[in-house]
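Sanity check. The docking grid for A2R depends on where the pocket ends up, so I'm generating a full predicted complex first rather than guessing from homology. Inputs follow.
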Amino acid sequence: MFEVLMPAALSNPLVAQEVGAKLTLHKLWETPDADAALKELAPRIRGILAGAPGHRRVGGEFLGQFPNLEIVSSFGVGYDHIDAKWAAAHGVVVTNTPDVLNEEVADTAMGLLLSTLRQLPQAERYLRAGKWQQANFPLSDSLQGRTMGILGLGRIGKAIARRAEAFGVKIAYHGRSRQPDVPYPYYATVLEMAAAVDILMVIAPGGPSTKHLVDAAVLRALGPRGVLINVARGSLVDEDALVAALQKGEIMSAGLDVFAHEPQVPQALLDMDHVVLLPHVGSASHRTRDAMAHLVAENMLSYAAGKGPLTPVAETPWPRLEKAD
Ligand code: A2R
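Predicted complex below; grid placement will be based on this.
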C-alpha cells in the first residue's frame, strides 16, 4: 500500500480527491494530535503532498522524519519552500506544476502592467467615489514606446514576452546564460539590463540564488520613468530598497503580486496610491488552479503506479540519481 501524507490542507480540493481515491491519504491537519500521528505514520509514508499556503518550510529537518519517503509532489511551479538539494541527496524526487500556469500568469502580468501604467484600479476607485461628476480622471502614463527587461525568460517569461510584443513593447532579457534561439537582446547582469529598459518584469524562481537580485542599485538604474512588475517571488526584490526608491521618486511605480512576507504588505506600500498591489493571484483562476491540482495528483499517482513522476524538478531528475550516503 502506498501511503501519502498531506501535512496541511491544499486550497484546491481536487488533489485530496484524486489521490485519496487511489492511495491511502493521511490528512495531518485533521488529526487531533498531529505530533503523535506524525510519529506513528512517519515510517509508512512514501509520498508527501506539499505546497499548502502558510505551511512551514519543507526542509531537511521536516523531510528527514520520513525514512521511507520517495516523492514530494508540490503545488505550484515555484518550489523555493522545498529543500530540493536535500531531497536529491537523499534519493527523494520532488515534482512541481510547470507549464499548466504559463498563460494565466502571463495574462496576470500584463494586466498588472497595464493597471500600473494606465492607473486603471485608481480610475475605477475614482468613478466609484463619484468624482467623475466633478472632473475627468487625470491623464496617466503609457505602455506605448516602452522597453521591457524580463528577469527570467523561462516558460512564463516567454509567454509574457509574446504578449508584450503584441502590445508593441520592445523586449530584453537577463538570465544566468544567453539563450541561443531567442531574438531579444541579452544582458549579462540585471543592473545593465535595468539601465537599458523602463519596465523591469521579474519572473525568475525564488530562493537563495535570486535573493534581492533587484536591489537599490538596480532600481536607481531603472530610473525615474521606470516601472517594476513582480509576479515571481517577493524574495527577488529588496522590499525596503523598493519602498525607498518609490518614496524618493527614483522609480515611477511598481505593480506587485508578491511580497517578502506574505500575506503581510508593508504599510508604506499600502500608503502609496500610485502603486498597484495584488494578493498573489498570478495563477489564481478556477481553470488554472484545477489544472495545477490535477498535475500534483497525477505526479503522485504515476509515481505510485511505478511509472515515474511526470514533472520532476531539475535537482531531482528522473531516472533517480544514486542515493548519496
Ligand atoms: O538563468 P537561466 O538562464 O537558467 O534562466 C532562468 C532564470 N533564472 C535566473 N536568472 C537569473 N539569476 C538566477 N539565479 C536565475 N535562476 C533562474 O529564470 C529561466 O529563464 C527563468 C526560470 O524559468 P523556468 O524555470 O521556465 O520557470 P517558470 O516556469 O517560467 O517559472 C518562473 C517562476 C517560478 O519559479 C515561480 O517562482 C514564479 O515564476 O511563479
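Relevant for the grid: Residues 286-304 form the longest helix (19 residues).
Also worth noting: The two ends are 27 Å apart (CA to CA).
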